[in-house]
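Following up on my earlier message about methionine sulfoxide. Here are the inputs again, as you asked, copied directly from the submission form:
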Amino acid sequence: MALSKPQLYRDLAEQLAALLANEANRVANAANAAALIYHGLPDLNWAGFYFREGAELVLGPFQGKPACVRIPVGKGVCGIAAARAAGALVPDVRRFSGHIGCDPTSRSELVVPLIEAGTVSGVLDLDSPVPARFDEDDRIGCQWFGRGVRRSPPPVFGHFARWNPLVGDAILMIRTI
Ligand code: SME
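Thanks, got it. Here's what our run produced:
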């Protein structure tokens, strides 16, 4: 019997914790996390990290096709998630004008910010060739993945508001952490 989505994320989070144990190097940990996520979750065509350098996000370890290297904070799905310190979900990237396309086969996207000491240090980005591939279970599961590749211990997460459409564009859903 197939695992439920939360159970799949729990299993992958345990595997990730084992992979990252005793290793503090962020690049090594992000590389293993991207590989685990890409091969462990169904229907992905890209999984990886961007790390913040000033006003930009810079490409980090990933699995999938080559991607754009620098994204201004505030631009694209990744930059909006970083600027707002919020999860960003795009059910159909073809209907969100702000989407930065790297692989034309991508149809939906989920971005989760990495937050260290109260500031966004990067994002975890997942792309899928399947429209509306991601939901709330994915966002929560991905936050656990993100915790492993930050330099500092995770903060405690509280309750979350519901997904809200970004003002002016109902196709990008934002959920504040
Ligand atoms: N689609 C992203 C850009 C990164 S790629 O998907 C790997 C965005 O709009 O920010």
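One observation from looking it over: The helical segments are 5-20, 26-40, 76-84, 136-148. Hope that helps, and feel free to reply on this thread.
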